[in-house]
Amino acid sequence: MGELLVLGGTAWLGREVARVAVERGHRVTCLARGEAGAVAPGVTLLTADRSQPGAYDGATARDWDAVVDVSWQPEQVRGAVTALGPRSAHWTYVSSCSVYATHDTPGADEDAPLLAALADDVPATGETYGEAKVACEAAVLSAVGDRALLARAGLIGGPGDPSDRYGYWVSRFALAGDGPVLVPDADDQPTQTIDVRDLAAWLVTAGEVGTTGPVNCVGERQRLGDLLDAANTVAGGRARRLAADPQWLQDNDVTGWAGPRSLPLWLPWADHAGFGARSDARAMQSGLTRRPRDQTLADTLADERRRGLDRERAAGLSRGDELLLLEALQH
């Protein structure tokens, strides 16, 4: 591939993409403000604020073998493909499975219907994340067409996860020791998490070989109950799972999926039966390889220990709140 430009590259996924590319011998430049962290060793930082005019001027004087963009702000993505699309042989846009209009069909593939794209005059917020990603995809396709890969990522986990979702469970089982851990009564719910390192490696490979089109980049499908059992085993296997009825949890202000006072990865919504069960066939056919689940869990636990098992989290219950809920559940 040779010359790779990563738009971003100082935060979690973007930095891992840059690190992998350098490791494979590519020359890597990251265009970023540089405020989220340092670039990976061996990477050149091109300092720029993508929200400002002329942000890409420093990158337009040369040709790029590949560009990788992870932004979800349509204005940023439009600006990037307009300025850099003509200078790039291959363009990877890291999108999301949140672009799909429905999540109720297990096994749905890349041909499933999409949400309506976010209108130009509507701000991109957390509530319009999926629509914003659709608008970003449309901008990329309009500018670079069949040179574009739309990498629709599912839930990403592994060391360094700023969302705190995947790491919650292995961290909580470790923190609980031989005590109880509150879990949802949803063992049969399908769930998929892709290790950030596996996703990054595949994205670099895609640029090397020229993979294009929409591709669901998701983890291996498994039962939530199996993931919880594996997390407990990796954490020492001493904790006791206490399952609560989904309605009881919601009555006690415990939500699913993400955020404060949640049980991460749990999907208590009937119309999300396929959210953790999307087809991975196209990704696997295009070279995605995934490390064993227990390796991801073990590496995630090591990272959680470094960050603090009992720290304030972006997702999940505090241990104090969890113990209060467990007491109420058992009385």
Measured distance between first and last alpha carbons: 62 Å
Question: What kind of sheet is the major sheet?
Answer: 7 strands, parallel
Label the CATH architecture of the largest domain: 3-Layer(aba) Sandwich
Element order: H for helix, E for strand:
EHEEEHEHEEHEEEHEEHEHEEHHH
Q: What class, by secondary structure content?
A: alpha/beta
Q: Remind me, CATH topology of the largest domain?
A: Rossmann fold
Average pLDDT, rounded to a whole number, is 97
CATH class of the largest domain: Alpha Beta
Total number of helices: 10
Strand order within the widest sheet?
3-2-1-4-5-6-11
Residue share in helix: 25-40%
Shape: globular
Low-confidence stretches: none
Quick one: CATH superfamily of the largest domain? Answer: NAD(P)-binding Rossmann-like Domain
**Beta content:** 15-25%
Number of strands: 15
Characterise the protein shown here.
- This protein folds into 2 domains: 3-153, Rossmann fold (3-Layer(aba) Sandwich), CATH 3.40.50; 162-192 and 220-278 and 292-329, no CATH class.
- Helices cover 34% and strands 19% of the residues.
- The protein has helices at 12-23, 74-84, 129-144, 166-176, 196-209, 224-234, 246-251, 281-285, 293-307, 319-329, and strands at 3-7, 27-32, 44-47, 66-69, 91-96, 148-153, 155-157, 180-184, 190-191, 193-195, 213-217, 222-223, 240-244, 255-257, 262-264.
- The strands form 5 sheets. It has a 7-stranded parallel sheet with strand order 3-2-1-4-5-6-11, sandwiched between helices. A two-stranded parallel ribbon has the order 7-10. The chain has a two-stranded parallel sheet with strand order 8-13.
- Strand 4, helix 2 (74-84) and strand 5 (91-96) form a beta-alpha-beta unit.
- Helix 1 (12-23) packs across helix 5, helix 2 (74-84) packs parallel to helix 3 (129-144) and helix 6 (224-234) crosses helix 9.
- It is globular and about 70 Å long.
